[in-house]
Amino acid sequence: MTAPALDRWGDPLPGGAVARLGTLRFRHPGRVDALAFSPDGRQLASGGSGNETVCLWEVESGRRLARLEGHREGWGVGALAYSPTGTFLACRTGRAVHLWDVTAAREIRRFQARGPLARSLAFSPGERFLAAPGATSGAHVWEVATGHLVAFFEGDSGEVLDVVFGEIDESFLTLGGDGILRLWDVERGETLESWRVPVDTEVGVGDAIVVTSVSTRPDGQAVWSAPAGGGAAVSVVRVREGRPALDLQDAGGAEFESVAFSANGKIIAASGFSGTIHLWDLPSGRMRPAGEGHVGGVDAIAFSTDGLRLAAGGSDGVLRVWDIESAETIARVALGEEISTVACSAQGGMIAVGGGSGGVRLLDSATSLPAHELESPALELARATPDMTPEPEQDGPPAVEGLALSPDRRLVAAGFAGGAIRVWEVASGGLVHDLAEPGGGPRRITLSPDGRWLASGHRIWDATSGRELLTFPEQVALVFSLAFSPDGTTLATGDVGWVRLWNAATGVLRLAIATPVREVVFALAFSPDGRVLASGSKDDVVRLWNVETGESLACLEGHEGWIRALAWSPDGRLLASGSLDGTVLLWSAERMDSSRGG
Asked: Taking Cα atoms as reference points, which of 544, 557, 475 lies closest to residue 515?
């Protein structure tokens, strides 16, 4: 049996893939709301509300050891706790707690709560009991061996933010949203003592509070991390002193939803929406490298003209240029905003970048794309402000949803959330056309290979004059992706559960392909010979379709997040896919037959 190919980090590649740009190490598939260290500090568990998976990580290397799946209540994973010996891992999902055997990666028991549970779990020192506070009040205590609910303690006002046992099984502490610590007696079923945590700032329900150690007396200490306002600041606070003891380095704008301390107090882990797990060493506060790659989802990719490099950007606001042969970053530009789309000119030398705040930038890539030349964009276009009434929840200009460069590098076009489309002249940065289209929603756009036509999924314009050429008569309300065939005769569009092929000259629907999973089709890309169409959607799978018949040719599986971007190399030998898992996979056209599927 042939051993699987490995990426440059030593992790297996999926069948049909030849390289991974970025890494899966310490990359949880989706948002992370809960973290927990094993007692010996060698493992870290992560789970979140964006998925129903718990990942176990090797702390030293960031390598994933196991995936625990089966939390199917639809709530995601909101709290994690290892037992004192490290034998068990408890996972909270809404109204239930799942108990896993860590070594066997097998669920062995499930505890059912009386109502929604809060973001905390705690084992007693002897592993006899497991405690979980309720989301509105009180705390559950179960017997680990049997799953029997021993007691339900009431008395806290509002959400209970945290729970921790003392030195014996029979007593535990809760930290309430009202800022009061309460000491409970398990056997007697009553509160023994209570006292207010002396901190200057209010303990908010939305803050990530993790109590790592606390004595059974008011003069003891507790240490937690409280990200301020959902931002990147992480502070270690000593309860007795009521003030920050250490402010940790930020993680490039990451927003943290969960924090955890190792048992020996020497490491802090934090993660949030991006799914990337960050580690700091204490007491220095120095951040450990998270591994080269995108911190967050990859939303846009584009090959260079020679096919030797690939530009990619996403939610971390960083444009990375990757060397295909070595799978290493050769240029990195921090743009300070989410990158929603990227386009490379057909003749090379130019990269267009669109962002979440409505900015459109043109970067002169030169020939080798050195990092120092990318630090200062060769041209920055004025921020788009279409003449339209923004939606109530919109703050500032609408985000760039689509971007295209004409092959001759003369024009750059951008589509904006809400329906606006604008075309600029590259040389001057002057506005050429304002093609705002009614209907709202995301506005994906593309230019035909010869640069003559501009398509939005609902209409096609003459790119030079701005004159409307045709309207698709049968098109759906929202188009999430589109692509011209290499000869410009066919326009492919993707919506919810469908890929449609249109005659670009007449607007007549030629072929409609129902995808197996009725989810949004986020990305489309024709092969250079025009015979194959690649699609990507929310089921984490890249699918290949026969353009003439609509037959499914292959399913490329290996990503752990939605497929947000697709691009073929100019010679058609590689297909690149960008995903919310923060990586780009390069698939070999020669090996795609081995990944055939529905």
From this structure: 544
The CA distance from 210 to 403, in Å, is 43
* Residue 352 to residue 311: CA distance in whole angstroms: 10
Maximal C-alpha separation, the chain: 82
What is d(CA 168, CA 144) in angstroms, rounded to the nearest whole number?
Answer: 15
Query: How many C-beta atoms lie closer than 10 Å to residue 352's C-beta?
Result: 28
Indicate the pLDDT class of residue 350, thresholds 50, 70 and 90. low
pLDDT, one tens digit per residue, over 435-459 is 866 655 557 889 999 889 999 878 8
Exposed/middle/buried for residue 283 (C-beta within 10 Å: 0-12, 13-18, 19+): exposed
More confident residue, 156 or 35: 35
In this model, does residue 465 exceed pLDDT 60?
yes
Question: How large is the average pLDDT for residues 220-230?
Answer: 38
Q: How far apart are CA 508 and CA 454, in angstroms?
A: 17
CB atoms inside a 10 Å sphere around CB 221: 12
DSSP state of 411: E
Q: How many residues does the chain have?
A: 598
State the burial class of residue 571 (Cβ atoms within 10 Å of its Cβ: 0-12, 13-18, 19+).
Answer: exposed
The predicted structure's pLDDT at residue 438 = 60
Find tokens 């998270």 and name the residue.
290
Q: What pLDDT, in 10s, does the model give residues 235-250?
A: 444 433 444 455 565 5
State the distance between the two ends of the chain, measured CA to CA, in whole angstroms.
25
Q: How many CA atoms lie within 13 A of 594 on its CB side?
A: 9
DSSP-H helix ranges across 287-390? 371-374
Task: Assess contact for 364 and 373: CB atoms under 8 A.
Answer: yes
Distance, in Å, from the CA atom of 373 to the CA atom of 302, rounded to the nearest integer, reads: 19
**How many other CB atoms are there within 10 angstroms of residue 468's CB atom?**
13
Please tell me the predicted confidence (pLDDT) of residue 393: 42
Report the 10 Å Cβ neighbour count for 595.
20
* Alpha-carbon span 467 to 557, nearest angstrom: 42
Which tokens in the block code for residue 12?
């297996």
The H or E element spanning position 459 is strand 459-462
d(CA 190, CA 206): 28
Residues 368-380 have pLDDT tens digits of 333 222 222 233 3
